[in-house]
Design a protein that fits this description.
The structure holds two protein chains of two kinds. Chain A is α/β, with parallel strands linked by helices. Chain A contains nine helices and five strands. A five-stranded parallel β-sheet of chain A has the order 2-1-3-4-5, with helices on both faces. Chain B has a nine-stranded mixed β-sheet with strand order 1-6-20-19-16-14-11-10-9. In chain B, strand 19, helix 12 and strand 20 form a beta-alpha-beta unit. The chains are: A alpha/beta, B alpha/beta. Chains A and B meet through helix 5 of A and loops of B. Bound molecules: CO-5-methoxybenzimidazolylcobamide.
C-alpha cells in the first residue's frame, strides 16, 4: 500500500534546457507545484532565451501553473505552507518577467494595495490573501494593520493600483470600510479602482451595501475575483 | 436520630431543591492536575525557553508608558525598538504578583478562588452571530441576546462566571456598546462577569457605572465583580496600544485583568506545539511584568489562549485536539509557576449543536480541566470557531461541564470507599447486590452526578416520551428561564439611577422591570 509520505523523485537528471517547449512548460507547472524557486527562475530564463514573449511565459508557464496550485489548494490537497512555497517560486519567475513586461508595454497581471482598516489589528487573513495574490502574479503592496483612510489614499496616489483591498475582522471596524469608499467617492476616484473587501464577519450583502465591487470569502476567492475584475477592467479600458 | 423524614411531600421537596453543599458531587474549583502532557524535564525546558524569549527577543510596539514603566523595573529598550525583559525582571514580577486571586460575584456565594490547581468554567466571546437552530440560520447577535444569555448562565450550576458572550450589533456607537455589554451582563447574573472595552475612555465611564451599582468606589474596590479581558499582545511578541491603555485604566480602577495572549499555532505562534506554549507564556509573563510595574500585586489572570490554525486553509480551529493539548500544557506551566491561570477550551468548529460540537467540546475541555486550568473560558455555547453562540447550548453544555468537573474531582480512596466490609456483607449471606446497601444509599448523590438534559432512558421509555432530542429539551428550558428568570440583585432603585446617568439600551421592561 502506498504510504502518505513525501514522494522523492530523482530529479538530478532533469536538464530543463534539454526539454522541448511543451515538456518544459509542463515541468515548470510541476516545479511551481513543488515550490522550486530556482528551477522556476531557470525555466523562465530558458523560455525567454528561446524567444518566448514575456506575456506568453507568464500566461502559459506561470499563471497556468499557479491556477493548478489554486485548484488543489481549494480542494484541500495542498496545505497553506506548500502554497506559500509555490507562491514564492512564482515570485522568482515574476522578478524576471516584471521589468520585461513593463518594457514591452504588456498588460501586467495587476497591482493591489491591501490593508486592515483603522482600529483593527487582525492580519492573518489579510496576509494570506496578499501571499495568494502574489502567487497569482499580482503585485501587492501591503499597508499592514490599523489603517486610517489617509493611508489608503496615499498608497493609491503612490502606487496607482488596480485594486484596493480592505480587511476587517471586527463588527466595530467593518463600517470603516465604507468611510474609505465614501472618501474615494468624494474625491471622484472611486470608479478608477476595483474595491475588494473581506474578513470573517462580513458577507456579500455588506459588501454591496458599502459599495465595494466584491466581497471575497477567502483568499482563493479573492484571487479569482481579482482576476475576473481586472480582466474586465483592462478590456473596458481598451 | 429521628427515623421519620416527612414522607412523600418532604422527599419531593428535597429532590426538587438544589443539593446541599455537603452532598453535591462537584463544586466550583475541583482540583485538577492529573493530566500532565509534559514531563518534568519538558516543563524545565519550556520554562527556560520562555525566559530566553523574553530576554533575547522581547516585545515590539511598546507604548511610551509601557517602556517607561518597564524600564524603571529593569527591562531594556533596544535600539531595534524591542523591549526586552531579563530574567531577574521577570522573577521580580513573579515575586510581586497576586497568587491568591478571588474573583468576586455580586452575590458572595459565587466568589471564585482562582489559585492552585482549582478548576472553574466561564463563558467568553465575543461571537458576532447567534447560531439560531430554530430558523436554521446565523443571525446578528443583539443586546437582548447578551442579557438573555447572562440570565441563562445565572441558572447553570457549572458555569461559574459570565464573560460577555456576544457583540451587541444593534448598538452602533462603540461607547454605548461597551457600556451596555457591561450593564446587560451584570444585570443578567450575580456571578462574576468578564468584559472587554474598545477604548480606555469607555472603561473610565464604565467604572463610574460600576461604582453606582456597588454603592461607591470603595465598595467596588473591596469586591470588584467585573474583570477585564485584555488582548494586550498581538502575537508574535508585539504589544498593542489601545489594549495597553485599557489595561492601565483597569489596574488604576481596581479591576482584575485577564492578560490574554491568543496566538494561533502555525500562523502567529510556531506550528510546533512546544514553541507555541513557550511563546504564549512569554507573552503573558511580559504582560505580568508591565502590570506589576504599574502596581505591584495588581490582580491578574494569566491567560494563554493557544488557538490553532488549520494549515489546510489558515482558518482558526478551536475544536482541534491540539487546542486541548496546548491548553493543558499551558495549564501545566501555569501550575508550575503557581500563577492564577486561564485558557480557552470547549469551543467547536461545528456550526450547530451536533455530534462534532459535543465531541470537540468534551475532549478539549477534559484536557484543560484535568490539567488543572484555573479558569476555562469559552467552555460553553461557542460555535464556528468563536463566530457564533447559541443560548440553549449553555444548558446542554452545563451537563458536559458538570461531567468534566466530576472527572476532575477523581476518586477518593480510603477505608470506607474501598468498601471491603460492604463487599463482604453483600457477598457472604447478603442480597448479592449493592442496590439497597446503606453505603449506596449514602453516596447515591454525592458520588454520582446526574445530567439535567442528557437522556439516559431505555429506547422504549424514550419512544413513549415522544423521542425527545436534547436540543428540544434545552430550547424548552431556555424559554422557561427567559420567561421567568429576571435577576434582581441590582435593585429597581439602582437601575433607575443608572438609567438616569447612562445611555442604557434595553428598556426596563426588556429586563423584567416595570
Ligand atoms: C481583498 O481583501 C480581502 C479579501 C479576503 C479577506 C480579507 C481581505 N481579509 C480576510 N479575508 C478572507 O480571506 C482570509 C483567508 O481565507 C480569511 O481571513 P480570516 O481572518 O477570516 O481567517 C484567518 C485566515 C484566520 N482567522 C483569524 O486570523 C481570526 C481568528 C480569531 C480567533 C481572532 C484572532 C486570531 C485574534 N484576535 Co480577534 N479574533 C477573532 C477571530 C475569530 C474567527 N474565527 O474569525 C475575532 C474576529 N476577534 C474578536 C475580538 C473580540 C477581538 N480580537 C482581538 C484580538 C485578536 C488577536 C490579537 C488575539 C488575534 C489576531 C492576531 C492577528 N495577527 O491577526 C481584539 C481586537 C483587537 C483589535 N483592535 O483589532 C478583540 C476585541 C478581543 C479583545 N477582547 O480585546 C471577535 C470579534 C468581535 C467583533 N466585535 O467583531 C472574534 C470573532 C473572536 C471572538 N469570538 O471573540 C477571510 O475572511
Amino acid at each position: 500500500m502506498a504510504e502518505n509520505q513525501e514522494v522523492e523523485v530523482d530529479d538530478e537528471d532533469i536538464d530543463l534546457s534539454a526539454l522541448p517547449d511543451d515538456e518544459l512548460v509542463e515541468q515548470m507547472h510541476d516545479d511551481l507545484y513543488d515550490g522550486l524557486r530556482e528551477e522556476i527562475v531557470e525555466g523562465t530564463n530558458i523560455l525567454l532565451e528561446r524567444g518566448w514573449s514575456p506575456e506568453k511565459v507568464l500566461a502559459d508557464a506561470l499563471v497556468e501553473g499557479m491556477r493548478i496550485v489554486g485548484i488543489d489548494f481549494r480542494d484541500g490537497i495542498l496545505f497553506v505552507p506548500e502554497v506559500l512555497l509555490s507562491a514564492n517560486a512564482m515570485k522568482g519567475g515574476m522578478g524576471i518577467l516584471r521589468p520585461l513586461l513593463v518594457e514591452t508595454g504588456a498588460k501586467p497581471v495587476g497591482k493591489m494595495i491591501i490593508g486592515t482598516v483603522k482600529g483593527d489589528i487582525h492580519d492573518i487573513g489579510k496576509n494570506l490573501v496578499s501571499m495568494m495574490m502574489e502567487g497569482a502574479g499580482f503585485e501587492v503592496v501591503d499597508l499592514g494593520i490599523n489603517n486610517p483612510v489617509e493611508n489608503y489614499l496615499e498608497a493609491i496616489e503612490e502606487h496607482r493600483p488596480d485594486i484596493v483591498g480592505m480587511s476587517a475582522l471586527l463588527t466595530t471596524t467593518m463600517p470603516y470600510m465604507k468611510v474609505v469608499i465614501d472618501t474615494m467617492k468624494e474625491q471622484g476616484i472611486r470608479d478608477n479602482y476595483i474595491v475588494l473587501v473581506g474578513g470573517a464577519p462580513l458577507n456579500e450583502e455588506f459588501g454591496e451595501a458599502i459599495g465595494a465591487d466584491a466581497y471575497c470569502r477567502d483568499a482563493a476567492m479573492a484571487v479569482e475575483t481579482a482576476r475576473k475584475l481586472v480582466d474586465a477592467k483592462q478590456a473596458a479600458d481598451g | 436520630m429521628a427515623r421519620r423524614s416527612g414522607g412523600r411531600e418532604a422527599r419531593k421537596a428535597l429532590r426538587s431543591a438544589p443539593l446541599s453543599e455537603a452532598i453535591k458531587p462537584v463544586h466550583p474549583g475541583e482540583t485538577g492536575g492529573q493530566y500532565r502532557p509534559l514531563s518534568d524535564a519538558d516543563v524545565l525546558a519550556i520554562r527556560s525557553n520562555i525566559f530566553r524569549i523574553l530576554e533575547e527577543i522581547g516585545f515590539g510596539d511598546a507604548t511610551a508608558h509601557c517602556i517607561e514603566t518597564c524600564t524603571a523595573v529593569g527591562a531594556i529598550m533596544g535600539n531595534d525598538g524591542r523591549l526586552r525583559m531579563p530574567g531577574h525582571v521577570v522573577e521580580n514580577a513573579l515575586d510581586l504578583c497576586d497568587r491568591n486571586l478571588v474573583l468576586h460575584g455580586q452575590d458572595p456565594q459565587f466568589d471564585l478562588q482562582i489559585q492552585g490547581q482549582k478548576v472553574h468554567f466561564s463563558t467568553a466571546g465575543a461571537a458576532v452571530m447567534i447560531a439560531d437552530y430554530e430558523s436554521n440560520a446565523y443571525r446578528d447577535s443583539t443586546a437582548q441576546d447578551l442579557y438573555d444569555m447572562a440570565r441563562i448562565v445565572d441558572q447553570c450550576e457549572h458555569i461559574h462566571m459570565y464573560q460577555r458572550t456576544c457583540v451587541l450589533r444593534d448598538v452602533a456607537d462603540n461607547y454605548e456598546m461597551d457600556l451596555n455589554t457591561l450593564y446587560g451582563a451584570i444585570s443578567g447574573t450575580a456571578k462574576h462577569v468578564g468584559c472587554s472595552w474598545t477604548h480606555y475612555t469607555h472603561l473610565e465611564k464604565s467604572l463610574e457605572l460600576l461604582h453606582a451599582v456597588a454603592g461607591s468606589d470603595a465598595a467596588w474596590r473591596a469586591r470588584p465583580f467585573v474583570s477585564q479581558s485584555n488582548c494586550f499582545v498581538v502575537p508574535p511578541m508585539k504589544f498593542t496600544e489601545d489594549a495597553l491603555e485599557c489595561l492601565r485604566v483597569a489596574v488604576e480602577g481596581g479591576m482584575p485583568v485577564l492578560l490574554l495572549s491568543a496566538g494561533q499555532a502555525g500562523a502567529t505562534t510556531p506550528a510546533c506545539l512546544a514553541g507555541a506554549v513557550s511563546q504564549a507564556w512569554a507573552e503573558c509573563l511580559g504582560g505580568l511584568v508591565y502590570l506589576n510595574a504599574i502596581k505591584a500585586g495588581a490582580p491578574a489572570i494569566l491567560g494563554t489562549w493557544p488557538f490553532v490554525s488549520d494549515l489546510r486553509t489558515g482558518a482558526m480551529s478551536g475544536g482541534s485536539p491540539e487546542q486541548g493539548l496546548l491548553s493543558a500544557a499551558c495549564a501545566q506551566i501555569g501550575n508550575d509557576l503557581n500563577l492564577p491561570f486561564g485558557t480557552a477550551c470547549g469551543m467547536t468548529d461545528a456550526k450547530f449543536p451536533d455530534y462534532q460540537a459535543g465531541a470537540e467540546r468534551a475532549y478539549t475541555l477534559s484536557a484543560a480541566a484535568l490539567a488543572g486550568a484555573n479558569i476555562i473560558y469559552e467552555s460553553a455555547g461557542m460555535y464556528a470557531s468563536l463566530l457564533g453562540t447559541s443560548p440553549e447550548s449553555f444548558l446542554m453544555d452545563n451537563d458536559v461541564l458538570g461531567a468534566t468537573l466530576r472527572m476532575t474531582r477523581g476518586i477518593e480512596v480510603n477505608d470506607e470507599t474501598l468498601s471491603f466490609e460492604n463487599i463482604r456483607s453483600v457477598c457472604i449471606g447478603g442480597e448479592g447486590h449493592y442496590l439497597g446497601s446503606d453505603q449506596t444509599l449514602s453516596v447515591m448523590q454525592s458520588e454520582y452526578i446526574y445530567p439535567e438534559l442528557s437522556d439516559r432512558d431505555s429506547p422504549n421509555v424514550w419512544e413513549e416520551n415522544g423521542k425527545p432530542l436534547i436540543l428540544e429539551k434545552a430550547i424548552k428550558r431556555r424559554n422557561e428561564i427567559l420567561k421567568n428568570h429576571f435577576p434582581k440583585h441590582i435593585s429597581d432603585e439602582i437601575d433607575k439611577k443608572v438609567r438616569a446617568e447612562f445611555p442604557i439600551f434595553l428598556s426596563p421592561e426588556a429586563m423584567g422591570r416595570r
